[in-house]
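Before going further, learn to read the protein records used in this course. The integers have meaning only within a learned vocabulary of local backbone shapes. To see the layout at work, look at the sequence and tokens printed below.
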Amino acid sequence: MGLKQISLTMPENLLQASREYSEQFGYKNVQEFILDLVRDNVMLKNIERYRKIDGRMKKGLGVKKFSQKGAVKYIKEL
């Protein structure tokens, strides 16, 4: 997994608050803090989405029902 550099523009007061927060909570720098925020948000959103999908599947909502042969055929066509 390679790293990719991005550029981020934010208001000065938000940057300063981010620096203070980073120091207060032990981040090495603002970049590490922002990376942690993005990682957490992506993971939480995915977990939330998967739980909704799982709930719908358990209720049989939006679920395709196949025989074993039909399921194999469907998967091969993906």
